[in-house]
Write a structure and sequence with these properties.
The complex is a heterodimer.
Chain A: H1 2-28, H2 33-38, H3 54-66, H4 80-115, H5 120-133, H6 137-151, H7 167-201, H8 204-212, H9 216-253, H10 259-268, H11 272-300
Helix pairs in contact in A: 1-11, 4-5, 4-7, 4-9, 5-7, 6-7, 6-9, 7-9, 9-10, 9-11, 10-11
Chain B: H1 2-23, E1 32-37, H2 52-58, E2 66-68, E3 74-76, E4 79-84, E5 90-95, H3 109-120, E6 139-146, E7 149-154, E8 187-193, E9 197-202, E10 215-220, H4 224-232, E11 238-239, H5 244-248, E12 254-260, E13 263-269, H6 279-288, H7 291-299, E14 303-305, H8 320-323, H9 330-339, E15 346-352, H10 356-371, E16 375-381, H11 383-392, E17 398-404, H12 409-413, H13 430-441, H14 445-462, E18 465-478, E19 481-482, E20 498-499
Helix pairs in contact in B: 6-9, 7-10, 13-14
The chains are: A mainly alpha, B alpha+beta.
């Protein structure tokens, strides 16, 4: 319990630190929203005034953030919270779909590889994994679009339907972007699971079980997997954080109106209110994921207790 | 075994799901099209929107007292006719009979008065974000004569005012402009979702030739690459701005339409900074640059050479003499540099990284200048940084950019007026200022043409910029469609587009 409490304190401090960095970062970047929108065209009349020093401004911002009020988007002229709501749902769908895909694919493949390391199947999967791991998301996205969208015509690039209009259509459109993010992560995950199992299989208790006459499957699923998956959990938490970061790229390539695209567009247009809200959200996701992993790691494996 | 079955099942389900998405394609509304754009709306209020991409779309929804046609003539729109008094100091507009806004309300002289006051910054309470058009400041008085008649009284003579009266007429004190805009144009606003789309529907009550299409969806994509993939996949019918490379790999069921961008691209110098505060250095640059070669290299040979900030689209005002003033002559360039007492010239060329076209141009320019012994360091900055540092603070040596202008010829060169707030090249010439004032006030057309010719020659000779070209506008249009119209201003007119029989 004390451990959990300590972790929680850590989490709050981290998020606070991130919020300070996010807030001050924008003070340094040149340009502001009005000049970007006006371009080389006009001069906007402004009756807006910024009051208070930087600390007061930060205080006001964090106070609003706590109740979900991030001010108004200068680019879209609407409250940031309205803007975020719908897009958050889209990105969360994308993230969850990715995670499901990664879990569904990497576990069976990892086990398959670990069963006969060096076998044909293992070699093929490992080779493919290396290729996928080295492929950046945007390239993977374009590749998928060209293969499945332009050549095979399985889906229509850019024909996004809102989840509110047609949920099935929405989910089916999201499969490709989810795949684009998931494939490189799957590759990493398969490798990690494979190696973790192989290491575990070399342990003494496996030999003991074998000599007792336990079946190979029984050893794998009853004993080895349980132990081998513990480090995988930590790794998975990192992957989850990466998935949400990866969605920035995939949303751009597939024109998905999610948080990622909003972030890119708000950075380019110097829409600070939107930017800082999204960055805060992303950092919370990352920090919470990491903490959950730490906590799970701790409780799943009591042996670690003495080390902490 | 079980696992394999499960995997197979998963793959099949995924395939099926992907297949599902496809069914929707043929069931779409017959008389509608999708236009792919890569710039989001900055506001739906026509007096707040400044982004060129937004104005292009809103052109279909809003109209001014007058409206440009494809030839650049200003025709009466919300006004049915107008009179200019003998001395040029008073404009009288009579509103069109029976014209109404999309919400069904009649357009009255009070609405017009409100709209012009708002555009000119003459309303009593200033509204956040409204763009004030400085050219409208010559209006000293707006008189509502009756329901249908309005009078504009000027403080000084300005024969080019009409070009600015294209500013949108909106209902007086209408509060929902940002979320549900209403105008008088051939299309009315239907819906807008940030990052997704803006949808326009046909205005059945339109006073002029009604639109052919029932519905136009402007689909907002993240960037032009994503947009082009969508075109390859058949999701969009029209993409307005293609790169040269994209134009070459257009699928068979699309046609390439070529217009002009109506802007002038050039290498602009900071006339207050070393080494470009020396006229000779600037002229040397003009001699060292081969404009046709740039057009061939970056635009596939499409684009029209210019010799000043006036684009060739201003037909009679455009000076061919200014265009032909410089031709590539490396020796001459070297000579001029020698005269200026400069050897081993090296400078930084700042370009906005989001405009691939300008970045590519910078590479070619750097190559050409190398022949004349000039070293160019290309510095790429993002758009916001460019605007604040180069355009706002004028903290740069040279830059490449394209400058657009309204229909009035004065608008093309207004930024070179020595005290203009957007004179980012720091050009300062008394002769220019005088000619410019004179040209703006001149009501004799021949005289005006002559004055603008003089201005262009002066701008070419003084060379605050090495003007390059008015780039070509490459538009992909589905072969099923016809009726695309290009204007001398940057708009996407949807009202003439229809499906071929």
């Amino acid at each position: 319990m004390r451990y959990l409490f300590r972790k929680l304190i850590e989490l709050i401090i981290t998020v606070l630190a991130v919020s300070v960095v996010t807030f001050t970062a924008f003070m340094v970047i040149p340009g502001d929203s009005d000049t970007v929108l006006a371009g080389t065209e006009g001069i906007r009349q402004s009756v807006k005034e910024e009051s208070g020093n930087i600390i007061v401004q930060y205080g006001r911002w964090i106070k609003g953030a706590l109740v979900g009020d991030f001010g108004e988007s200068s680019q879209f002229k609407m409250p940031v919270s309205d803007l975020l709501g719908e897009r958050l749902i889209v990105t969360i769908h994308l993230g969850v779909m990715c995670i499901i895909l990664i879990a569904l694919v990497s576990l069976p493949f990892g086990i398959l590889c670990a069963r006969k390391p060096g076998g044909i199947l293992d070699n093929v999967i490992m080779a493919l994994s290396n290729v996928f791991m080295a492929t950046p998301e945007f390239f993977m996205g374009m590749l998928l679009t060209i293969i499945f969208g332009v050549t095979l015509r399985w889906f229509i690039p850019g024909r996004y339907t809102s989840y509110a209009v047609d949920y099935v259509g929405f989910i089916s459109y999201m499969i490709m972007p989810a795949l684009a993010i998931a494939l490189p992560k799957m590759a990493q995950m398969i490798k990690f699971i494979r190696n973790s199992i192989i290491t575990e299989l070399k342990k003494d208790y496996v030999r003991t079980a074998l000599s007792k006459g336990a079946g190979k499957n029984r050893i794998m699923y009853r004993h080895v997997l349980k132990n081998a998956l513990i480090p995988v959990i930590t790794f998975f938490a990192i992957i989850i954080a990466q998935v949400f970061a990866g969605s920035i790229v995939a949303e751009q390539v597939f024109s998905v109106p999610g948080i990622g695209r909003l972030l890119v567009s708000s950075v380019l247009n110097r829409d600070y209110n939107v930017c800082s809200a999204i960055l805060l959200y992303i950092s919370i996701v990352v920090v919470v994921c990491n903490m959950t992993a730490d906590v799970m790691y701790y409780y799943l494996n009591p042996r670690k207790e003495e080390k902490i | 075994m079980k696992r394999n079955v499960l995997l197979c099942a998963l793959i099949i389900i995924m395939t099926l799901l992907c297949g599902c998405g496809k069914e929707g394609t043929n069931g779409e509304q017959a008389n509608s099209i999708t236009v792919g754009i890569s710039q989001d709306m900055d506001s739906l209020d026509p007096h707040i929107a400044v982004a060129a991409g937004t104005k292009e779309v809103l052109f279909n929804v809003f109209e001014g007292l007058v409206k440009p046609d494809t030839e650049g003539n200003l025709n009466p729109a919300v006004a049915e006719e107008y009179k200019i008094s003998e001395d040029g100091m008073k404009y009288t507009f009579i509103l069109r009979e029976g014209i109404s806004f999309h919400n069904g309300e009649r357009v009255t002289a009070a609405d017009v008065e409100y709209s012009i006051r708002r555009c000119a910054g003459m309303l009593e309470t200033k509204e956040e974000g409204v763009i004030v058009e400085p050219a409208l400041s010559v209006i000293s008085q707006i008189n509502v004569v009756d329901e249908k008649t309005i009078e504009l009284v000027l403080s000084k003579k300005d024969t080019e005012l009409l070009g600015y009266l294209t500013c949108a007429i909106i209902p007086k004190d209408y509060k929902e402009m940002k979320s549900n805009p209403v105008g008088t144009g051939p299309f009315k606003f239907e819906s807008y979702k940030p990052l997704e789309s803006i949808v326009l529907a046909k205005n059945e009550e339109y006073w002029g030739d009604k639109a052919y299409l029932d519905k136009v969806t402007f689909k907002i994509s993240a960037d032009t690459d994503a947009l082009f993939l969508e075109l390859m996949g058949g999701n969009v019918d029209i993409i307005p701005y293609l790169t040269d490379a994209q134009a070459q790999s257009l699928p068979d069921d699309y046609e390439l339409k070529v217009g002009t961008m109506n802007l002038v691209q050039g290498v602009y110098f900071n006339c207050d900074r070393e080494p470009f505060n020396n006229e000779k250095v600037r002229q040397a640059m003009c001699y060292a640059i081969d404009r046709q070669n740039i057009i061939d290299m970056v635009a596939g040979g499409r684009g029209e050479i210019t010799g000043s900030n006036v684009s060739p689209r201003f037909a009679k005002y455009f000076s061919t003499q200014a265009r032909d003033l410089y031709s590539k002559d490396v020796n001459k360039a070297k000579e001029l540099l020698k005269e200026a007492g400069i050897s081993n010239l090296s400078f930084t060329l700042t370009v906005p990284s989001n405009y691939t076209f300008h970045v590519d141009t910078a590479q070619v320019v750097a190559g050409q200048l190398k022949e004349a012994g000039i070293t160019v360091n290309i510095e790429q900055v993002d758009w916001a940084t460019w605007l604040s540092r180069v355009y706002g603070d004028r903290d740069y040596q040279a830059t490449i950019i394209g400058l657009a202008s309204d229909l009035a010829p004065s608008d093309t060169v207004a930024r070179f007026y020595s005290s203009a707030s957007n004179n980012f090249v720091n050009y300062n010439s008394n002769e220019f200022d005088m000619l410019f004032e004179e040209a703006k006030a001149s009501s004799d057309d021949d005289k005006k043409v002559e004055l603008y010719n003089k201005i262009q020659m002066l701008m070419a000779k003084d060379a605050p910029a090495a003007y390059i070209q008015d780039p070509a506008l490459l538009m992909a249009v589905s072969s099923k469609l016809e009726g695309v119209r290009f204007y001398p201003v940057q708009v996407l007119d949807m009202s003439g587009i229809k499906y071929k029989d």
